[in-house]
Amino acid sequence: MMLGAGPVLAECPDAPDQAEALRGLIAQVQDAPNEMAARLVTNRMWELWSKAPDAQAQAVLDRGMRKRASYDFLGAIEDFDLLIDYCPDYAEGYNQRAFVRFIKQDYLAALADLSRALDLAPDHIAARAGLALTFMELGELDRARAQLRIALRQNPWLPERHLLAEGGRLAPQGDDI
């Protein structure tokens, strides 16, 4: 079996258990005094989420992310498909594929991937925010608000927080006439 450029093991190893480290980072970001401090903590969260189960999976994840960054969306999806086939229990494969599908405005496919990512990693704040954005694009504003509120309870500094502020696309609708 080949996964990209080299031979692979028959089975993907388990992804590293990052739950305790992530809980610590969530507490830190909740206590962050400002957006810059929160961004530094969020970057550390991304380091955890994007640590693949083995070197082969890491190479495919990194390659797919490079392709996405260079707007090779078809190539990125192919790589994320390979990663998911090899490591079906690794949440970031689904999250990254969802991101590409969201960019391509394939919202239903993004929704399915984000749901799977959150099944595997319920505290994946970025996937939760992505789910909120996807619901928003599908016109399901109540569901979008609910998901964004969950994400903001974990990280109150998310850039998407502005969507719930007055004038934002997800701002609660008032009773005024």
From TrEMBL:
<dbReference type="InterPro" id="IPR019734">
    <property type="entry name" value="TPR_rpt"/>
</dbReference>
<dbReference type="InterPro" id="IPR050498">
    <property type="entry name" value="Ycf3"/>
</dbReference>
<keyword id="KW-0677">Repeat</keyword>
<dbReference type="GO" id="GO:0009279">
    <property type="term" value="C:cell outer membrane"/>
</dbReference>
<dbReference type="Pfam" id="PF14559">
    <property type="entry name" value="TPR_19"/>
</dbReference>
<feature type="repeat" description="TPR">
    <location>
        <begin position="91"/>
        <end position="124"/>
    </location>
</feature>
<keyword id="KW-0802">TPR repeat</keyword>
<dbReference type="InterPro" id="IPR011990">
    <property type="entry name" value="TPR-like_helical_dom_sf"/>
</dbReference>
<protein>
    <submittedName>
        <fullName>Tetratricopeptide repeat protein</fullName>
    </submittedName>
</protein>
<dbReference type="GO" id="GO:0046813">
    <property type="term" value="P:receptor-mediated virion attachment to host cell"/>
</dbReference>
